[in-house]
Amino acid sequence: MQRIDRSSKLVATWLLIGVGMTIIQIALGGITRLTGSGLSITEWDVVTGSLPPLNQEQWMVEFNKYRQTPQFQYLNFEFTLPDFKFIFFWEWFHRLWARTIGLVFVGGFIYFLLKKHFKPEMIKPLILLFVLGALQGAIGWIMVASGLTGDAVYVKPTKLALHFIFALGLLCYTYWFALSLLVRPEQKIQHNGIRKWNIVLMIILVFQLLYGALMAGHKAANIASTWPTINGEWIPDHLFKTEGFFLNAVDNKIWIHFIHRGLAYLLVIMIIGWSFQLYRTKGNLLFNYLRTMPIAIILMQLLLGILTVLTSSTIIAGNWGMFEWMAEIHQLMGMILLLVLVSLIHVVRPKIK
What we know:
Layout (H helix, E strand, L loop, with lengths): L5 H29 L21 H12 L2 H5 L6 H34 L5 H26 L11 H26 L6 E2 L1 H27 L26 H7 L1 H28 L4 H6 L2 H19 L10 H26 E2 L4
Parallel strand pairs: 1-2
């Protein structure tokens, strides 16, 4: 049995800490979105922006900047300073956590480099990891900037979705890197069928998560707070009310709602069928553990999705209620399902001919 050396374990642990912190960061992004806090900070000061306002004068400076935004002028014009402090906190904390992730990675990189824990084959993946992290930060600011001009009162849904998908890509890449250092060759199995279906499921799930982000960006949950039908219809009217297929696919709330639900049902059916194949396949302890997870998570995710839709009728602006809890947990379970599929595709390799 091949043993994992100490350097690989240390680097993998560092990467998994990053995975955990990224999951928290995405969750904080969800809270920021649900509380409408994303446009409360109008500038991107990488260093000086790490500190919140420390006195009344500084708070008024930030509040006055926010008053110049379309969101304040068209939506939150009745906001007082305490209201502003609430939304400011969540956006500030979201950015602070991103800075903390950067410090953890930079600090860990320097430490492991000085201690010579990095192997030559680790360098290129690490460079790509830092590039992806920097790109995600840039996309985040582009997203925020999209809501600070014109008559926009929220960030552009397409840019929110792009920010979310890139975050998931960064999350999966970091997790895959850690798995490559921890999973031993004897813990892997070979099976073409399982692996092919795994890839298909991951592609569908990414589209499902993308449409979840569009649902969030358009605040489309309560446009149809009914289940199992969509406002009493299985196939709703106005699926193609926007001219052009692409614009319809990203701007038509009913279409987005319909596709998000449809992909959920498709995933449930496919994962149930796939699970039968997983259980018929003989494997090692790691594979046997992982194969129990997809069906349990997808059924829980389906239930959370239904509850999110049904509780969307109770949304009260500025209040954190049952809908917000359901939406946040629903997003978290989607990420966990994605990481489970990543784990399985790492463990199940194609057969060598």
